[in-house]
Amino acid sequence: MPEPLPIPIRVLVKGASTVGWSSGMGGPRTDFTFPRAMEAALLADGRPTEIRTISVPSERTKTTLNRWEDEAIGYSPDVVVLLYGHYETIHFILPWWLERHANSLKRHPRRIAEAYRKHFLTPLWMFLAKMQAKADVALDPTIRRSRPKNVAADLERLIGHLQDLHSPLVFCFELLPPATRYRSWFPGMERRIIVMNKAIADMIERVDRPNVRLFKTTELVEKYAGGDIDVATPDGFHYSHELHHEVGVELARRVREWADTQPHLAKRLADRDETHTA
Predict the structure, then answer these.
(1) Could you point out which of 18, 48, 90, 135 has its C-alpha 20 to 30 Å from the C-alpha of 234?
(2) Are strands 79-83 and 169-173 parallel, antiparallel or unpaired?
(3) pTM for the whole structure
(4) Where in the sequence is the domain holding 99, given as residue range(s)?
(5) Where does residue 79 rank: exposed (0-12), middle (13-18), buried (19+ CB within 10 A)?
(6) How far apart are alpha carbons 178 and 114 in whole angstroms?
(7) Are residues 40 and 65 in the same domain?
(8) Same domain assignment for residues 181 and 254
């Protein structure tokens, strides 16, 4: 009989554009975002891995909670990586649907549509964004406390559902503040990020499970970019190619350590046999 193949580590990565986009898009195929970098690191270590990445620009946490059944139940992942809450901190006043409409990547190259954007939508959006920036300075930028509470509550509910799928390892990401390029447009975002990060960290502490963990992104920014957020996120929001790589490598290391404690994911067949006969 042929030697049985090891079971691959199934990983589900979900988030808004921070997951699938990087500063300096349009480069070579080797400019991996962190899910692919994690996959490459695990495969290089001889660990069979299957990674599914769902990255939707400007996706909110409540949306992924609505879609979790389609995305997770049938796949039944061993590891789930969630990068949510960032989009909810960007705008102080403007509604999300208007921002998506104004900056959509799905717009069609039609004459009337292009004229509408050029002469009406873009000027309107720029005017409203400038007014929002002024309000973000004049008022308390964290006054809308329901946002971080809702994000944390939605993540907690999602994690609860995921634990019913045989208790996968779950990582929730610490969010990075905006770099210099966008601080003038969103002057209160950095303070909102602080509140959001605390809400997510408090939620993980409240869940209190060893397989639900906070991934501290700022530690990697300090280690590999000297703490310089402009180096880590050159376009203002998204990770550099280098940071994507380091995040992927670090995630792979933590997944390997956890997988070694799981009988069905032991690296060598001998390890699996020893675990089952122990």
Answers:
(1) 135
(2) parallel
(3) 0.90
(4) 93-138
(5) buried
(6) 30
(7) yes
(8) yes
